Amino acid sequence: MIRSIFFWRCLMISVFISSSRQQSILEGVIKLVMEGEYQASSEPEDAQRLYAEYDFIVVGAGTAGCVIANRLSENPKWKVLLIEAGRPENYVMDLPIVANYLQFTESNWKYKTEPSDKYCMGLDGQQCNWPRGKVIGGSSVLNYMIYTRGNRRDYDNWEKLGNTGWSFADVLPYFKKVENFTIDEYKNSEYHNDKGYLSVSYPPYKSKVADAIIEASQQNGFPYVDYNGATQVGVSRLQVSMRDGVRESSSRAYLHPARNRSNLHVKKFAMVTKILIDPTTKQTYGVEFERFGRFYSIKASKEVILSSGAINSPQLLMLSGIGPKKHLKELGIPVLKHARVGFNLMDHIALGGLTFMIDKPYSLRIERILTTESLGMYLNHHKGPISVPGGCEVLLFTDFEHPNDTDGYPDMELLFQGGSLVSDPLLRKDFGITDQIYEKVYKPIEPADSFMVFPMLMRPKSSGRIMLKSKNYKVKPMIFPNYFADKKDMDTILKGVRLVLNITSQPALQKLGTKIHTLPIPGCEKYTFASDEYFNCMARHLTFTIYHQSGTCKMGPKSDKKAVVDPRLRVYGIKGLRVIDASIMPVIPAAHTNAPTFMIAEKGADMIKEDWGMKA
Ligand SMILES: Cc1cc2nc3c(=O)[nH]c(=O)nc-3n(C[C@H](O)[C@H](O)[C@H](O)COP(=O)(O)OP(=O)(O)OC[C@H]3O[C@@H](n4cnc5c(N)ncnc54)[C@H](O)[C@@H]3O)c2cc1C
Ligand SMILES: *[C@@H]1O[C@H](CO)[C@@H](O)[C@H](O)[C@H]1NC(C)=O
Ligand SMILES: *[C@@H]1O[C@H](CO)[C@@H](O)[C@H](O)[C@H]1NC(C)=O
Ligand SMILES: *[C@@H]1O[C@H](CO)[C@@H](O)[C@H](O)[C@H]1NC(C)=O
Ligand SMILES: *[C@@H]1O[C@H](CO)[C@@H](O)[C@H](O)[C@H]1NC(C)=O
User: Which terms are listed as keywords in the entry (predicted)?
Assistant: First the structure.
């Protein structure tokens, strides 16, 4: 047990003092998260003195950045600087169940999309909340730890688009390299490995609702499957990036083991404002960053690697003069290279708030989870309901075009939570559901037992764009996700809802008295409840992002006019600059994006080593 007893006392006291007033649970957790003294003890220290020049500078210590910093600093001759805008990670962030709470802290960039009357209509300001991690570990610290690689056809398609070296056969070794897979049943599978840095496991706890959901899915004809194995279609408990019941962020997995390397410096609370590029030679030579109001320039003799995520990487490229010519000119930014930066913005969305009532006391509810008993259980054994990542428990993949093919290519995922919007007072605030909708639809069922299902679109046809609002690095960019622009996307969501209704009518869930919650969403009352028109309206009101923003610095061959980076992740037209993170995905895979981002980073690090003549 490495958790400090002092910390646990604080958490327990704050939870108990406040259990009658749920708002102060939030305040207690935020306070704990923000207090630096709880910094994870084995995270690399903030470098006190930086060199004037490094071989490599990595911008952003998120999922990808931590991997790259680790792999490049394996070579003791290379000096590596990792720069992160956010703060250190800390113990509170390790508790899987509080995943939803972290979005309310300063460790979240708190982006919002531009208002729309086609999606996110039932959310505050008609805007979708797009949290992103601003902390050592990046979004892998805020995420729900769901670990899915996607389908082999995702990567075969990347290769077909001209991205040599990215077929499934090429990337599988990197997926394996990432993981220390600890699920016994599948351990000897040729798809898994137990030597990697990142621990992948089942959460140690499972609710009775989850058992019934799995059984009902099987009764509906779905096999139980290792969706990270040979085929993807079927149902499974979540495989998660978790070690022994504790969140395994990218930093815990990759940075902590590298903490004693003297050639790796990590700079925290430091926001890169610009990539330094010689305007005539187009050679990258460093970065400028801001820290507590002061500006610094640091040189890179070999390369700068942008791993700032799918919103900040395109923002930084544009601020540095790489982007759509016309757009940059309008903002008064000198253009170094015209490129379609910020386009091809993809995400996974679900129809939110689809709730089922049960008549057994089995669902995950915050007051059942935060008890003396379960805190003690987690404190002493890392087990019990506190180990459930934000209440998510089961997922199911299906391919509506080939419904009987267990080797199908999923266009839909059903993600099941063992609780619902009423199980935790903060969950609705993550999405920003308006008071009007909450009071009318969900408040009346607060005392009841319930669970929730997200029918999630896996292969969206619609894509959006990120644009700068200003050339000031502090001003957040404008985000236009364009959800549902392609009609086919809504059709698939509606099929997903039908599948949910079929599964919930199976005996295993009927045994719990499962019934759909029928109070209509304000704004959708005019449609017959449960008709396609009704669910269409509901999806447009409660449009839930699953936080898989990607694609904004697209990878592609030279012939692809929309490509920003080449298949070795080098920015076209600029020397010494790569992008390695979720923004390079040419097409979003049928996966939660954390595992694919780990893979991209491992592969990207090897390409850098190869290009500098070091054995990968
Ligand atoms: C709430 C939430 C839940 C999610 N749930 C899941 C899930 O369950 N499963 C899953 O697979 N995926 C999930 N995801 C998505 C997944 O976590 C991301 O796709 C993945 O972490 C992206 O990695 P990245 O390296 O591209 O970016 P990030 O991990 O976001 O890293 C970018 C880093 O760069 C830093 N940075 C940005 N700009 C600058 C700058 N100018 N200067 C210095 N530093 C900068 C940021 O602070 C951040 O630390 C979730 C995401 C969120 C936000
Ligand atoms: C993999 O995980 C197991 C179980 O947690 C652990 O014992 C082992 O040391 C890990 N292996 C590596 C290479 O970290
Ligand atoms: C780092 O060094 C300290 C002190 O020598 C040692 O206790 C620790 O195990 C080392 N950590 C790693 C990951 O090598
Ligand atoms: C799938 O299988 C079911 C039951 O075996 C059958 O009724 C149905 O026609 C099949 N569907 C397709 C598209 O093959
Ligand atoms: C749901 O079940 C009905 C009746 O068995 C069937 O016609 C329909 O195809 C099923 N829909 C889905 C999406 O599984």
Answer: FAD, Flavoprotein, Signal
